[in-house]
Amino acid sequence: MTKRAYNFNAGPAALPLEVLQQGQEEFINFLDSGMSIMEMSHRSPIYEQVHNEVQSLLRELMGIPDSYKILLLQGGASTQFAMVPMNLLPAGKVGAYVMTGSWSEKAIKEAQLFGETAVAASSEADKFNRIPDLSAIKLPDNAAYLHVTSNETIEGTQYQTFPDTGDVTLIGDMSSDIMSRPVDVSRFGMIYAGAQKNLGPSGVTIVIAREDMVLASPKNIPTMMRYETHAKNNSLYNTPPSFSVYLAGLMLKWVKAKGGVADIEKINRDKTRLIYDTIDQSGGFYRGFADQGSRSLMNITFRIHTEELEKQFVKESEAHGFVGLKGHRSVGGLRASTYNAVPMESCKALADFMADFQKRNG
Ligand SMILES: *Cc1c(COP(=O)(O)O)cnc(C)c1O
Predict the structure, then answer these.
(1) Is 358 annotated as a binding residue?
(2) 103 lines ligand 1 (CB under 6 A)
(3) Of 39, 164, 303, 316, most Cβ neighbours within 10 A?
(4) DSSP class of 3
(5) Which residue lies with its CA nearest to atom 2 of ligand 1?
(6) What band does 3 get if pLDDT is binned at 50, 70 and 90?
(7) What is the pLDDT of residue 19?
(8) What pLDDT sits at residue 352?
(9) Is 44 annotated as a binding residue?
(10) May I ask the CATH architecture of the domain 259-361?
(11) Domain residue spans in the chain?
């Protein structure tokens, strides 16, 4: 069998071997159609079945209420940064954002192009090493919504619980932790996520939204940017990213076969515990970046006391078959992304490598 890397890439990221193998088996002749899924009409019954199954698996696995639409879009989460305010931030209202790091900063920047925004809480003074106390969140009186980034991929922080926003719609960018743990979808007006971290390959963006959020979009924005266009056409207004949707479907079936999202969370906790424990028991050789109470199950960020050693760590790790352990260029240090598809075996190997590296350099 092919040798697989210990893949800790931040995104696009590891996919389960079983999913890749099934994709390979079905690649040339999908369901005896005599063609690959990439070669068939997105109006064909075979494709439509795949498309609808992705939505129904998402609904089942995440417990999405019937009153929510599930859209399969393109343009990544970055396009959602703009679509959210274009559709949901009318004049006279304020888009409120909790600033937790790099991605929430990008989200608010886009909203500033369209309307009034407010920072409802921020941990910038602590270099974004934690999620702000939920009690510190201040909603403006005329808030259109509160936007949160459930997991900050670059800093490695994650909400442990979500704020109660009363009548104000809560919107969540869950690009880097969707399906990694159970979430009460009904507390959100909208959840969106690019698929390429936890749900499949790049190319498809999932939007889960209460019907009232997506069925009355402003008429004066481009057709493709209106949620209503996609909601009313089952995300088949134009050509969908059919191959990405198909692979996301295989990934969802894989999650289901693992027992569902609650079981996946348990596995994720076991995986990350190995690595966080190695950091905590290193006597200060490794230092976790995130505050203990805000630690992410998806992106483990840490440092070693000199940049020299960090460079050496990356170099040696690569020689040992590890990929993707260099921190994001904006924060430096080291980062291990442990998304759903990263196997326990990779995490065990990393914990062992870290202990060994410390022994040799501590
Ligand atoms: C990766 C990421 C994005 C950007 O996603 P694209 O699909 O590349 O636009 C946005 N938000 C978060 C939290 C991310 O991790």
Answers:
(1) no
(2) yes
(3) 303
(4) P
(5) 175
(6) confident
(7) 98
(8) 98
(9) no
(10) Alpha-Beta Complex (3.90)
(11) 18-257, 259-361
Please work out whether the CB of residue 9 comes within 6 Å of at least one atom of ligand 1: no
Q: Are 18-257 and 259-361 equal in CATH topology? A: no
* Fold for the domain defined by 18-257: Aspartate Aminotransferase; domain 2 (3.40.640)
Q: Report the DSSP pairing between strands 205-210 and 299-304.
A: unpaired
Token duo for residue 197: 């971290």
Q: Which residues contact 225 (CB under 8 A, 6 or more apart)?
A: 82, 83, 86, 87
- How would residue 2 be classed by pLDDT, with cut points 50, 70 and 90? low
Q: How far is the CA of 357 from the centre of ligand 1 (A)?
A: 32
* pLDDT per residue as tens digits for the range 283-310: 999 999 999 999 999 999 999 999 999 9
Q: Which residue's CA is the nearest one to ligand 1's atom 12?
A: 175
* Residue 77 known to bind ligand: yes
Token digits for 332? Answer: 């430096």
User: For residues 8 and 338, is the Cβ–Cβ distance under 8 A?
Assistant: yes
Q: How many residues does the chain have?
A: 362
Q: Is 175 marked as binding a ligand?
A: no
The CA radius of gyration of the chain, in Å to the nearest whole number, is 21
CB 301 within 8 A of CB 327: yes
Could you identify the atom of ligand 1 that is nearest to the CA of residue 79? 9
172: left (phi over 0), alpha (psi -120 to 50) or beta: beta
**CA 44 to ligand 1 centroid distance, Å:** 31
Whole-number average pLDDT of the chain: 97
The residue with greater pLDDT, 26 or 330, is 26
Q: What is the pLDDT of residue 330?
A: 83
pLDDT tens-digit series, residues 23-39 = 999 999 999 999 999 99
- Catalytic positions, written as ranges: 103, 173, 197
Q: Measuring from atom 14 of ligand 1, which residue has the nearest CA?
A: 175
Helices and strands in the chain: count of H runs, count of E runs: 10, 14
Residue 97 forms beta bridges with which residues?
119, 147
Strands 151-152 and 116-122: unpaired
Cα 194 to averaged position of ligand 1 atoms, centre (Å) = 6
Ligand 1 centre to CA of 358 (Å) is: 33
